[in-house]
Design goal:
Elements (H helix, E strand, L loop, with lengths): L1 E5 L7 H8 L3 E4 L13 E6 L2 E6 L2 E2 L10 E2 L5 H12 L6 H13 L5 H16 L5 E3 L9 H11 L4 E4 L3 H4 L2 H6 L3 E4 L21 H7 L3 H9 L13 E5 L4 E5 L12
Parallel strand pairs: 1-2, 1-8, 2-7, 4-10, 8-9
Antiparallel strand pairs: 3-4, 5-6, 10-11
Helix pairs in contact: 3-4
Length: 265
């Protein structure tokens, strides 16, 4: 059994779903330290001006675990997100097919970010048609050292292999995986090219971008890209634009390589 493990992200990008789609089990790593302003509480949607951050405001302190981080209820983030998504995807052919379900997720009274992220991830997997089972790392005891933690989680579910994100071979101890009886495999993600609401094409948006634009064909597009069909070429120059956050504008690199946000597993 091949397992993949990653921190639960908010409205994750296509590389995240692609990794889950290739695994037999996805374990959401909710038992590690939360990192604000990476991908755990925000993501990007495509706009006429480039891209726009949709951020979930959080209340947290240094060292707090992902599963314990609370959402800041004093901010009207739900209405802000939905208004932005509805407006910027008004011309997306499949927006109205999926937006009611996403709106229902937003309407729930979420207290913790982890619970919201898991609901969003499960909704996205269902909308795409990805059937990989989902569990949470906090269900098991595991050592704290990063590689030991991954090995312990894999052993806990009876895995024979661990499926890492791109670049995992640069920071994971391959020998330790092998000595533990686990085969280490590395994702080779290819980003699909498709007709977005705005031109030119900009990769690395939230997965709702492909879903709203391609609908029932979204998973086929993702898998075809894995086979090398209609992909963003590696030689394509990185695209830069200005994006709007709730508080300020900042440069936003939309190149695929920026999406792993550090050594996430």
């Amino acid at each position: 059994m091949r397992v993949t493990i990653h921190q639960p992200q908010f409205l994750p990008w296509l590389g995240y779903l692609d990794k889950i789609d290739q695994a037999d089990l996805f374990i959401a790593l909710d038992s590690v330290q939360f990192k604000k302003n990476e991908w755990q509480n925000r993501n990007r949607i495509r706009t006429a001006d480039g891209c726009h951050w949709v951020t979930v405001p959080v209340l947290h302190h240094f060292g707090q675990l992902v599963k314990d981080v609370r959402i800041n209820q004093a901010v009207a983030w739900r209405s802000q997100h939905l208004r932005a998504i509805e407006m910027h995807y008004a011309r997306a052919p499949f927006r109205d097919r999926y937006l009611p379900e996403l709106r229902s997720v937003y309407k729930e009274s979420w207290e913790r970010l982890h619970e919201l992220n898991m609901a969003v991830i499960r909704w996205l997997l269902g909308a795409f048609g990805i059937t990989t089972p989902v569990r949470c790392a906090s269900e098991w005891e595991a050592r704290e050292e990063p590689t030991d933690r991954l090995i312990d989680l894999c052993h806990a579910v009876g895995a024979s292999g661990y499926f890492s994100g791109p670049g995992g071979e640069q920071y994971l101890d391959t020998a330790r995986f092998e000595s533990s009886g686990l085969r280490l495999e590395i994702q080779q993600f290819q980003h699909p090219m498709y007709q977005q609401v705005y031109e030119p094409f900009m990769p690395a948006m939230s997965a709702i971008d492909l879903l709203f634009c391609c609908g029932p064909e979204a998973l086929t597009r993702l898998r075809n890209a894995r086979a090398g069909q209609n992909v963003v070429t590696a030689g394509q120059p990185a695209l830069f634009t200005r994006v709007r956050d709730e508080t300020a504008e900042m440069p936003c690199e939309t190149g695929v390589r920026s999406r792993e946000g550090g050594r996430h597993t």
